Amino acid sequence: MEFDDRIVVVTGGAQGIGRSISEAFVRGGASVVVADISLDAARETAAELEIFGRTRAVQMDVSQSGSVVEAFKRIKTECGGVDILVNNAGITRDGLILRMNEEDWDAVLDINLKGVFLCTKEAVKIMVKQRRGKIINIASVVAFMGNPGQANYGASKAGIIGFTKTIAREYASRGITVNSVAPGFIQTAMTDALDEQVKQEMLKSIPAGTFGSVDDVAQAVVFLASAGSNYITGQVIHVNGGMYM
Ligand code: NAP
Q1: Which residue ranges of the chain lie beneath pLDDT 70?
Q2: In Å, what is the CA distance from 100 to each residue of 114, 145, 191, 206?
Q3: CA–CA separation, 241 and 207 (whole Å)
Q4: Of 95, 104, 185, 189, which has the fewest CB atoms closer than 10 Å, so is most exposed?
């Protein structure tokens, strides 16, 4: 299978988009490390996906350097390396700027952007020695369009785009590609929490006329991790039904 012998780490892999990405890689033959802030949730997902292949659950808070370093050390020792890293963990703490407090700003930037930095750094250390690697960062349409009430989220996701391009340039000669996937409105727990009226307004702005599925995002990630994308780096794939083009 396409990802036989490949070791994949998916942050925030226990649910939503991350779970779907984890499943797609397990089905593709990879050994998948479901890394999540909740070890119980990671274990549950890893156990459910085991029917398709090899999985492992790891506790990792992407915003804490100690937790990230420890988790990657364990992954390297127990799995032997990291071939594909999917920086998927992300949160929202919405509010208009005048009501957004520093705590909400920091929480979103720490998990969504600093988390990508910390995990990428640990993965690159391993990938450089392997002279190959694929890093896929989950951004958002909000990085490109903005969205009222999401200054922290939009800034974190726009930061991911600049980060992706920079690391792509730093490591292209070492056989490591770095790309982003920018989902539009995807049906998950994160978006289920939104007000029904907001959802209906969003729907009007999507030419495809429907929200995306977690599988739509997973398939773009799988492509960027496949050999078919070896000459693609520093790019963004938009998965949004035409919401932004
Ligand atoms: P989700 O359902 O909330 O899943 C996110 C996962 O990340 C959860 O398992 C969560 O655990 C975990 N997590 C949270 N903080 C973490 C941390 N510090 N360290 C490690 N794991 C952590 O979200 P989703 O909708 O699947 O979103 C996944 C990614 O896609 C995010 O980066 C999001 O910004 C992006 N995205 C989503 C949409 C959308 O429409 N859903 C659109 C564009 C982009 P807990 O549940 O225990 O907190």
Answers
A1: none
A2: 19, 20, 19, 28
A3: 6
A4: 189
Quote the pLDDT of residue 224: 98
CA distance 21 to 162: 23
Provide the pLDDT for residue 92: 95
Is the CB–ligand 1 distance for residue 240 below 6 Å?
no
Residue 187 phi/psi, 5-degree rounding, is: -75, 105
Atom of ligand 1 at shortest range from CA of 14: 9
Q: How far is the CA of 3 from the centre of ligand 1 (A)?
A: 24
pLDDT at 79: 96
Any ligand 1 atom below 6 A from CB of 22 = no
Enter the tokens of residue 100.
Answer: 């957004």
Q: Residue 68: its pLDDT value, please? A: 98
C-alpha closest to that of 15 among 142, 162, 140, 190: 190
At 80 the pLDDT is 95
Query: Which of 91, 118, 181, 192 has the most ligand 1 atoms within 8 A of CB, as the residue to mutate?
Result: 91
**Predicted local confidence at residue 198, as pLDDT:** 85
Catalytic (active site) residue 153? yes
Query: pTM of the full predicted structure?
Result: 0.98
Q: Report the atom number in ligand 1 closest to the C-alpha of 67.
A: 19
Name residue 239's beta-bridge partners.
Answer: 183
Number of neighbouring beta carbons within 10 Å of residue 70: 15
Strand ordering across the sheet containing 133-138: 55-59, 31-36, 7-11, 84-87, 133-138, 176-183, 236-239
Instruction: Find where tokens 């700003």 sit.
Output: 105
Q: Specify the pLDDT at position 205.
A: 94
In the chain, beta strands by DSSP E: 7-11, 31-36, 55-59, 84-87, 133-138, 176-183, 236-239
